[in-house]
Give the backbone structure.
Amino acid sequence: MQLHILSDKIWFPPVEESLKDGLLAIGGDLSEERILLAYRNGIFPWFEDKVPLWWSPDPRFVLFPDRLKVSKSMQAIIRKDFFHFEKNKDFEAVITACRQITRNNQNGTWITEEVKKAYIDLHKNGYAISAEAYNNHGELVGGLYGILLGKIFFGESMFSKESNASKFAFIHLVKELKQNGIQLIDCQVYTQHLESLGAEMIDRKSFKEYLEKYV
């Protein structure tokens, strides 16, 4: 497969033309029109050296809200009110924390200032949402953000400053999304953290069918 180089024109090649690792295209910009077109086609941005990279991996890591797993230990944490949940209370603080958090096996962050601004603008226009966990001192200690289109939530990044805080926010968000009729949560690529909550792999063909049906 040949890697596609994007120009100012708002378009993407078919996702079936992705490289083996899921990389589909490089370049372009982070305009709202391009980002939303990407998500609608099962593509998401990830940066390297300030250059936009566009990905569509196969298989895809997703969570069906009905299959959410909440361990007994997490059920106990939820009952004991260690945290409280908010949605969209402070989107900018969430994406800033996701940008600053230290992650294992990663040098720096893909969330550049350009990415941060683009998603804050998407939030202001009603496309990006945040889920937040606050401790009993009112401090933001965990959360995540992503894009909500139709009946699919596309998760982007999460952070945790206290143990289980991001899980708490994720569980509450999934339950709320389920009540609102959301059918699928895109987790993009495998993590053990999300697998423990019920996420699983599906092939690209199935993922595209969900996009066509629910976005």
About this structure: Residues 4-58 form a domain with the Alpha-Beta Plaits fold (CATH 3.30.70.3550). The mean pLDDT is 95. DSSP finds seven helices and eleven strands in the chain.
